[in-house]
Amino acid sequence: MKVHIKEVFSSVKVRLFITLSTTILLIILFLIMVNNFALENFYLYNKEKTLIAVYETINDYYKNPYQDYDISTKLEELSIKNNFDILVKDISGINVYTTNKNFSSVIGTINDILNKFNKDYGQELKSNEKFSIRKQRDVKNGLSYLMLSGKLDNGYFLYIRIPLTSIQDSVTISNNFLLLMAGFTILIAAIMVSVVSKKFTEPILQLNYIAKKMSNLDFSYKYQVTNVKDEINDLGNSINIMSEKLEKTIKQLRSTNVELEKDIEEKSKLDEMRTTFISDVSHELKTPIALIQGYSEGLLENINNDDESRKFYAEVILDESNKMDKLVKQLLELMKLEYGRRDFSNDVFDIVELEKEIIRKSKVMLEENEVLIEFNEDQEILVVADAFYIEQIITNYLTNAIKNVKVVNGEKVIKISNDIVDNKVCIRVFNSGENIKVEDLNRIWNRFYKVDESRNRDNGGSGIGLAFVKAIMSNYENMYGVNNLENGVEFYFAIPLSK
């Protein structure tokens, strides 16, 4: 996986580690600078004070010549304790006491230089009428010293020397130690950052993940609030509250939106239904209105004076008026079915008994058309549906079959059968005769579509019977259709069996 440098440095862990490491390094550099520029001066200042204190002590030793202690022993203690070279000379320049014979020769060399060249030797740090303190360098051994040269109250000359190598070594050692400590400190800081940042970054990452989910309207994730009272837990609790409120608000908005969409859809359906209804009524009522208008004008103008003709005109007007009334009612019912504004009253009933009743009602039509009806169902088949609408479907199928049945093999045959498949009963109505053209198989389910446009008004029907079937079965969401068979046409539909 490819990781960009920018992404690495944007990590909280890395940034925290860099911050701590930089802080530690800056502190170490500051201490090294203090060591290099201030520690030596501070050390010289303290040693000056020590030299002055030792001078005063030695001066006190020689003020009282009758003391009950050995001055040499005391001087030796001072020398060992403070790592000093001490040299005491009398007025004649004879050594009274020395801790180092080489120191006595060094003093002699220094004095010779001072007397011969008459100039200062070394860097003078402090001076008064009793003593002077200088920083000097021994040319023989190449070492630097702090030298006090003074005169005691008894006239003796006192020389005290402190080597400065120790402070320089101390500075170097201290700096090396500080650098070593810096390495260890950074290592420890890395471990601490890893542990501490994990404690802080994990909840932050979790909060970030929850926030991303919320931005995608996914409110299923919640921050696990602990018992620790801190800002992160307060933030997590606030995000949980915000998530719950947002989820509730969005659910309300969605619910309101669904209701609004339903209202809009309902209004749209109503508008469409009105438009379709007006269009259909306008189209289908043209002929009956024209007939009524024509026969009414004939009556008014007394085209035929005999009573029989006037009666015929009146019967035509009445018949067309009834057809108009029936058509309008059928259209209203169809509209309600097609736009889902009709509730079904589903009950359990015997479909076989209903089929027998429909055949009985159609007996006159069957006899008039010399149709042989085949129906051999005797066993009870219980179904769940609205019996009124199922009766309409079967009646439409049977009426349509009677109108279109033809003689095949010497007889007109209509057959009604029931097939039970997958907890449903499929009702089939077959009539012998001509097949329906392939291009008309889907069109016949549309309102006012007639395969035979030449059929007269008495036998042609309104053209919305099969549209009724389509609307009813669409509400039930069950299959329906038509098949061309070898010697006729078969219409079918399915309804669920009773449990």
Describe the structure.
The structure is a single chain. By secondary structure, this protein is α+β, with helices and mostly antiparallel strands. It is built from 13 helices and 14 strands. The strands form three sheets. Strands 2-1-6-5-4-3 form a six-stranded antiparallel sheet, with helices on both faces. Helix 5 runs parallel beside helix 6, helix 7 runs antiparallel to helix 8 and helix 9 packs across helix 11. The longest helix has about 55 residues. About 5% of the residues have low confidence.
Main sheet summary: 6 strands, antiparallel
What structural category characterises the helix and strand content? Answer: alpha+beta
**Helical content band:** 55-70%
- The number of distinct helices, counting runs of at least 4 residues, comes to 13
Lateral strand order in the biggest sheet: 2-1-6-5-4-3
**H and E string:** HHHEEHEEEEHHHHEHHEEHEEEHHEE
Give the overall pLDDT as a whole number: 78
Low-confidence segments, ≥5 residues, pLDDT <50?
Answer: 113-120, 453-457
Report the β-strand fraction as a percent range: 15-25%
